[in-house]
């Protein structure tokens, strides 16, 4: 490490990566997160906390997830064959940090939907500052509906918690695809992995979670 090139933020990011490695995160995701300047995605007053293992408020009742949550969800999405993950839909852009990590992985097509216009615009500013906006397909709309016009998706990642899996998202998942999402089950949240096979869906409960609610839409046809 060349000390003359490292700022305080870079030191903090380096410590975050070391911590995530100790927590069991693999090299592919570590390298992606090491390349993204997380402090560009939080409010200036909170930037000194950007690399701490904690969620941070974004305003409008939204949060940026703690680094381990982002890393864990990203690993679950990639699975054991990351090369198959070519077209990904993210529901809940928020500040754009999870979007940036997906982009840093070099996945060919990343679509991200955000319901709140101010967050959608802010996320675009953050991604522009990080030099990643040109690679992202950003949509302001109802995440419950997904993006049927560009489906199917190899991966769908939901960063807010519905009470049940949105039907439209299940329908837009490709055979062999993976969906990672938190579900609110009577006040307790759990992170789930949904895998779509030719025979149906395989559901795996991964761990407890804590996300803001997914708002909008309906599963009613």
Automatic annotation (TrEMBL):
May I have one GO cellular component term?
cytoplasm
User: Which InterPro entries did the record assign?
Assistant: PCMT, SAM-dependent_MTases_sf
Which Enzyme Commission number(s) are listed?
A: 2.1.1.77
A GO molecular function held by the record: protein-L-isoaspartate (D-aspartate) O-methyltransferase activity
Q: PROSITE patterns from the entry?
A: PCMT
Where do the catalytic residues lie?
A: 65
Task: Quickly give the catalysed reaction.
Answer: [protein]-L-isoaspartate + S-adenosyl-L-methionine = [protein]-L-isoaspartate alpha-methyl ester + S-adenosyl-L-homocysteine
Keywords assigned by UniProt, alphabetized: Cytoplasm, Methyltransferase, S-adenosyl-L-methionine, Transferase
Give, as one word, the top-level EC class. transferase
Q: Where in the cell is it found?
A: Cytoplasm
Q: Which Pfam families match?
A: PCMT (PF01135)
One biological process term from GO is:
methylation
Under the heading Gene3D superfamilies, the entry gives: Vaccinia Virus protein VP39
| UniProt cross-references to HAMAP family, sorted A to Z | PIMT
**Which PANTHER family does this one have?**
PROTEIN-L-ISOASPARTATE O-METHYLTRANSFERASE, PROTEIN-L-ISOASPARTATE(D-ASPARTATE) O-METHYLTRANSFERASE
- What is the stated purpose of this protein? Catalyzes the methyl esterification of L-isoaspartyl residues in peptides and proteins that result from spontaneous decomposition of normal L-aspartyl and L-asparaginyl residues. It plays a role in the repair and/or degradation of damaged proteins.
Recorded family membership: Belongs to the methyltransferase superfamily. L-isoaspartyl/D-aspartyl protein methyltransferase family.
Q: What's the protein name?
A: Protein-L-isoaspartate O-methyltransferase
Source organism per entry reads Neisseria arctica
């Amino acid at each position: 490490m060349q000390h003359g090139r490292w700022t305080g933020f870079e030191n903090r990011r380096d410590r975050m990566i070391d911590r995530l490695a100790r927590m069991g995160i693999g090299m592919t995701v570590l390298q992606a997160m090491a390349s993204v300047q997380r402090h560009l995605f939080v409010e200036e007053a909170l930037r000194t906390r950007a690399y701490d293992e904690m969620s941070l408020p974004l305003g409008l009742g939204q949060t940026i997830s703690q680094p381990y949550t982002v890393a864990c969800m990203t690993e679950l999405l990639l699975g054991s064959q990351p090369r198959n993950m070519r077209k990904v839909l993210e529901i809940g852009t928020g500040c754009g940090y999870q979007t940036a990590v997906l982009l840093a992985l070099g996945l060919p097509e990343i679509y991200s939907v955000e319901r709140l216009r101010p967050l959608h615009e802010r996320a675009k500013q953050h991604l522009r500052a990080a030099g990643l906006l040109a690679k992202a397909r950003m949509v302001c709309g109802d995440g419950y509906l997904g993006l049927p016009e560009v489906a199917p998706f190899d991966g769908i990642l939901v960063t807010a918690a519905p009470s049940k899996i949105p039907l439209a998202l299940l329908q837009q998942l490709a055979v062999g695809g993976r969906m990672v999402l938190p579900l609110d089950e009577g006040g307790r949240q759990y992170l789930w992995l949904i895998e779509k096979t030719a025979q149906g869906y395989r559901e795996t409960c991964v761990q407890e979670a804590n996300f803001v609610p997914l708002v909008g839409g309906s599963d009613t046809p």
